[in-house]
Amino acid sequence: MGISLITKLKGSTNNNLLPKIGEMKVELPSVDSPSVQNRGFTVDIATAETIRLVNANFTSSSLGDNLGTSLPLDSTKTNSAYISNADATFFIPNKYNITSFSAGNKNKTSVHSPISFDLSELAYSKALNIVNLSNTDVYGDIAAFDGKANLVYLSLDNCPSVSGDLKNVKGLSSFKGIYLLNDDNVVCNMSDVASYTALEEISLSNKVYGDLSLLPANVVDVKCNVAVSWKGTRSSSSKIFTCENLILGSDIDNFLINMANCQKGKTGNIGLTGTRTSASDEAISTIKNYGYIIWVNGVKQ
């Protein structure tokens, strides 16, 4: 039988910028023009906890009040918080029970939040269902969300320091939306995206590989800023999806003819860039009859 040697070292630290066991560390630097968008965040957590804040104070949406350096979290509702304009660091206890975390603004690229933390902090949050961190300074590997069966929405548009490969993010049986637009360091292979069978919306990163026809059947909206291909055939039981400036090159005819054989989804604009021929005239007529508006190279069809 082996012998174990246990050594105990005496000592302590007064460094309040070090996270305690189970705490999630988040940084929020000061900005030139403070606003509720760049000084706020929301969090849901399954247990009542208290956030501690260092080098700043909590405030109201007016950003003018001093509400102290601790914030109780209510486990029965979404908790909104605002922090004064300073180089702040805050700590959320019991990160294992966080169910949602949001900051920044998914719909406005001009609204940037400097909130920053390593995505690996959320790897411990097993019940996580919503992450909305588009237009922020978060960083790390998206593999942190692997196996998150409860995750419904993951919004990381315009997060240049996020990296990884979707092949390492599996088991997302509840996944309805993933947003990675303009993320240069995230690999999106269509064969991996195809495994997200509940997916309805997707914004693709700038590293897209494979055939877009492999998108899951329930997808109704696609955003992508790089050229993609459409060589395969989307199942006729799949939904037609809306898109903006989808760069398909010589595959536009293939796309339209295939879409004309699919089911009506969420109507709206279908914007395409590339070369279209008369081969897809009938397909355009069919899709328009469903209520969609089709644009090719900026020209309404």
Give structural attributes.
single chain, 301 residues, mainly beta, Leucine-rich repeat, LRR (right-handed beta-alpha superhelix), 2 domains, 13-stranded mixed β-sheet, four-stranded antiparallel β-sheet, elongated
CATH architecture of the largest domain: Alpha-Beta Horseshoe
Order of helices and strands: EHEEEEEEEEEEEEEHEEEEHEHEE
- Biggest β-sheet: strands ordered side by side in the sheet: 4-6-2-8-9-11-13-15-17-18-19-20-21
Based on CA atoms alone, the radius of gyration comes out at 23 Å
End-to-end CA span: 80 Å
Q: What structural category characterises the helix and strand content?
A: mainly beta
Helix percentage range:
under 10%
Per DSSP, what share of the residues sits in E-state strands of 2 or more residues?
Answer: 25-35%
Overall pLDDT level: 93
Q: How many domains would you count in the coordinates?
A: 2
CATH class of the largest domain: Alpha Beta
Number of helical elements: 4
The beta-strand count equals: 21
> How many strands, what sense, and barrel or not for the largest sheet?
13 strands, mixed
What name does CATH use for the topology of the largest domain? Answer: Leucine-rich repeat, LRR (right-handed beta-alpha superhelix)
Spans where pLDDT lies below 50 across 5 or more residues? none
Tell the overall outline: elongated
